[in-house]
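pasting input
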Amino acid sequence: MATRSGSRFRTDHGLVARMGATLFLIGALYVIVFALLVAKGIAYGPLIVIAAGLLFAQYYFSDKMALYGMGGRIVTPEEAPELHGIVDRLCALADMPKPRVAIADTDIPNAFATGRNPKHAVVCATTGIMRRLDTEELEGVLSHELSHVAHRDVAVMTFASFLGMCAGMITRFAYYSGLFGGFGGDRDDEDNGAPALIVIMLVSMIVYVVSFLLTRTLSRYRELSADRSGAYLTGRPSALAAALQKVTGDMARIPTRDLRSAEAFNAFFFTPALANGFSISTLFSTHPPLEKRLEQLARISVELGQPVA
Amino acid sequence: MGLLDTILGRTKPVKPNLDALFGLPSAAIGLEASLGLNPTGSGSVCVKPTEGGGFAGLREQIDELLKTDNDKYDEIKDSFGFSWITRTGSPEDMSDLVTDLHAVNASLADAGFGPALLCTLVVFRDASNPPIGLVYLYKRGTWYPFAPTGPDRRDNQRELALKAAIGDDLPIEPDLSRWFPVWGAPGL
């Protein structure tokens, strides 16, 4: 089976198909919404420009914002030789530029990678995760994060969440203009002003909910993809699985207050920081359930274990 | 990585390029002439061992192959979990060393473990200074010099001098941020 420079890597066609379908639905939603806006002659241009500007800033400064939010600090190879050594080797294996390496001084065991493109990326590990995991497990976690960088997940997720953000803003806008002007009755189109606003509010709420669900679905698929690429990069899916189990178990035991302040950054985390006893439906979560991630890693482990032909 | 790969969130492991390995003997002549550096006869292949039976089975085959060859080979595991398969032979015959290293590389790549190859290291030394290594990056098909001077310290000035000396014979990695240190590698 193996040819010169062949590889034991397998593409998961099912995962690729599901992700493709989710992206197609997000695209379709864009088309429908903009067709509706054009057909109805609704001028939400300024609002869309504002939303795009906000989101672009969030995308462009994603590295600085995430580092600031988590209290991460860029470290030199002299300060953190082990972390740098792992990242060096993974980047050489994957043939990607080395991102900046940061450490966040918090006991929450987690890691994240962000940045607008691989050249401006930063990977950050918390002191909590470095204390809990051994070198191979930490390597598994970092390979997952580097896969996020290689897949340009910040760009993809920013694009995917744009419509939801617009819809959310329109909903709020319609709500407030209804509150402060629309229902007041001092307009020319007194008769249909209020119902039109209610329709706009309802439609944008529906768009918001649908887009939210699709974005979350996409996020879960991106996580599975990053697990997969990371496991193939190190050749050690079991180390990543072990890290996931350790970290996920620990996450539940951390005090709630810390976690609440961390929840806003879930999108780029290795595992989501969910507050104690906070039950959330699978539909809303940014990360796939632990069992699903472990199951995929076990499958890769079996594939890698097959004897050489 | 193409746009489609980005959209679908997939990366394919990068395949190694083994070709530029064979430029080493002529670079060795240049190193001796310009800087007085001689090969020590030591060269290593660094690979990330994949878990499971496939890699373990292949390793047995390689071990068999290596054993028949007068015990020239040795293997150590570094603190990052990478394996260094080291070949120690006569310092005179550089092309023999390159052929042996290529044999190890090719058997790993043929069995589908090409993406797990990290680098090849060949060690040189002169009369007075600590030994230096030339590191070959498979994924880039490029070389870079590595001159350690102690634990976690490297001599950048000497590395740049080495780069100038071998630049005509070997493709040098242009991106300096990829010249990662391999402290504690065998022979250094």
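fyi Residues 9-309 of chain A form one domain.
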